[in-house]
């Protein structure tokens, strides 16, 4: 009942509020307006190029990191996941620091940033399929007279096609609905419907137009995901379990080494450029940007107020803690419902609905439902952690459900036979696994909250920004000091996020 009430209050009601705006009189006029369709076309073109680049870089990485055995392979695979856990505003700032002098802002740098963010999607999804393909199938094709490229195209690539389609669809959706990257390093050629919804909401105060733009985006995203699901259903062949990794020999050893080195450079270069920018000024090495994080209003000037970065860090940590607690409770109970039968399993699937809805759409719906009279919750500061928890609940369910399913249910029966009451018997059987997985899932939810930008840009109060919002405000101001303090704050956000993810990973491997 707790997860059901949570989803009803903070997903169903906001979406109903959004739908009410869409079906209001005047919607036809907004649908005939060429602006949202032009922006949708720009976003689709940018997303297609970003997807193609992510596949071009990610497929060789997936081949090397999942199929071949070499020293440091585990660290290399973990390193390939780093871009995906970095906040989008951090990646945007890192690419501005790395390529700002040559590319500035625009289509090319946005495409590079999106490809970088989604490398882990390609490596994980395609790699998980690639490792199940028996290499003897390609050897058989070679022995029957096929050349190397023909054997790869007709055997391996054919088996990989559904996985590649799934990865491409996810990368396309992430790029199509991008907000932080587009706002910070984009220009008029890289607008997305997310940025249009934000402008229509916060600047124009035209909620009906924003709702129509969000609906157009939902139709495009839904169509892409349905296509990906159909492609995934076509997957046939391959082993159900991973094959043994291959030790490279001869020229393959050099190729594997080259791909691993290039992958490490691609992943580390933007992060190192970000650290460099936080320690350099036009006059040389400096710690002035770091000292600017801790002084009250050090970087406020004139009529533009940024706010204290230290206060923003404290606020983000409080929001992250609240998000972790709420998401762990709601997601944990939703995962428990999987054990109760068919209805529980269907409900657990329903908790994944926020994954198919963009953060801006969720933020707009929540703002329409709870950000204006008669029920205005913006002043309470609760809307941001609630929206973050809604985004994190599917992650908690995905983490907790396999662990609960793997727990032997006979432990509960034994405890009951020994005299334990039903609740005590259940906790005896599932409690140890539940405690561990809830701590891990709560930590991941905190990491999601720390770097989330889309929903917070709608729901955060002007005088209570989170760290990603402060970074965005700093980058919107000219001057070396603003950029330097933003870089230092981004480095702090990277440390906070990766520390949480590493702690969760280490704790999970120990238990």
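Q: What amino acid sequence fits the structure above?
A:
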């Amino acid at each position: 009942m707790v997860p059901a009430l949570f989803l009803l209050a903070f997903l169903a009601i906001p979406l109903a509020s959004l739908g009410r705006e869409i079906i209001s009189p005047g919607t036809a006029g907004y649908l005939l307006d060429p602006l949202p369709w032009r922006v949708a076309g720009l976003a689709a073109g940018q997303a297609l190029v970003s997807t193609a680049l992510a596949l071009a870089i990610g497929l060789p990485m997936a081949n090397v990191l999942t199929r071949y055995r070499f020293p440091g392979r585990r660290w290399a695979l973990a390193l390939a996941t780093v871009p995906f856990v970095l906040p989008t505003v951090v990646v945007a700032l890192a690419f501005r620091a790395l390529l700002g002098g040559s590319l500035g802002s625009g289509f090319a740098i946005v495409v590079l940033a999106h490809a970088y963010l989604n490398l882990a999607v390609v490596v994980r999804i395609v790699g998980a399929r690639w490792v199940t393909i028996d290499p003897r199938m390609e050897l058989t094709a070679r022995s029957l007279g096929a050349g190397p490229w023909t054997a790869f195209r007709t055997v391996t690539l054919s088996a990989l096609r559904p996985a590649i389609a799934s990865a491409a669809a996810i990368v396309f959706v992430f790029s199509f609905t991008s907000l932080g990257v587009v706002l910070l390093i984009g220009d008029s050629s890289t607008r997305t419907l997310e940025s249009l919804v934000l402008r229509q909401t916060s600047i124009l105060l035209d909620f009906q137009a924003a709702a129509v733009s969000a609906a157009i985006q939902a139709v495009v995203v839904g169509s892409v995901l349905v296509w990906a699901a159909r492609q995934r259903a076509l997957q046939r062949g391959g082993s159900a379990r991973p094959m043994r990794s291959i030790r490279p020999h001869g020229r393959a050893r050099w190729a594997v080494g080259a791909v691993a080195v290039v992958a490490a450079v691609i992943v580390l270069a933007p992060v190192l450029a970000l650290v460099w920018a936080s320690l350099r000024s036009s006059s040389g090495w400096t710690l002035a940007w770091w000292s600017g994080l801790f002084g009250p209003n050090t970087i406020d000037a004139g009529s533009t107020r940024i706010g204290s970065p230290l206060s923003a860090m404290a606020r983000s940590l409080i929001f992250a803690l609240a998000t972790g607690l709420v998401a762990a409770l709601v997601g944990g109970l939703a995962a428990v419902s999987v054990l109760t039968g068919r209805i529980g399993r269907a409900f657990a699937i329903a908790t994944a609905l926020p994954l198919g809805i963009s953060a801006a759409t969720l933020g707009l719906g929540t703002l329409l439902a709870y950000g204006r009279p008669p029920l205005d919750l913006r002043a309470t500061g609760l809307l941001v952690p609630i929206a973050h928890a809604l985004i994190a609940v599917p992650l908690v369910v995905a983490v907790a459900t396999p662990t609960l399913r793997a727990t032997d249910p006979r432990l509960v029966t034994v405890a009951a036979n020994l005299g334990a009451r039903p609740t005590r018997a259940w906790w005896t059987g599932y409690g140890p696994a539940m405690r561990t997985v809830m701590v891990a899932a709560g930590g991941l939810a905190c990491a999601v909250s720390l770097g989330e930008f889309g929903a917070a840009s709608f729901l955060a109060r002007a005088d209570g920004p989170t760290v990603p919002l402060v970074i965005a405000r700093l980058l919107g101001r000219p001057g070396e000091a603003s950029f330097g303090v933003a870089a230092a704050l981004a480095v702090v956000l990277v440390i906070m996020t990766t520390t949480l993810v590493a702690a969760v990973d280490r704790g999970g491997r120990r238990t």
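Q: And what stands out in the fold?
A: Strands lie at 280-281, 284-285, 371-372, 375-376.
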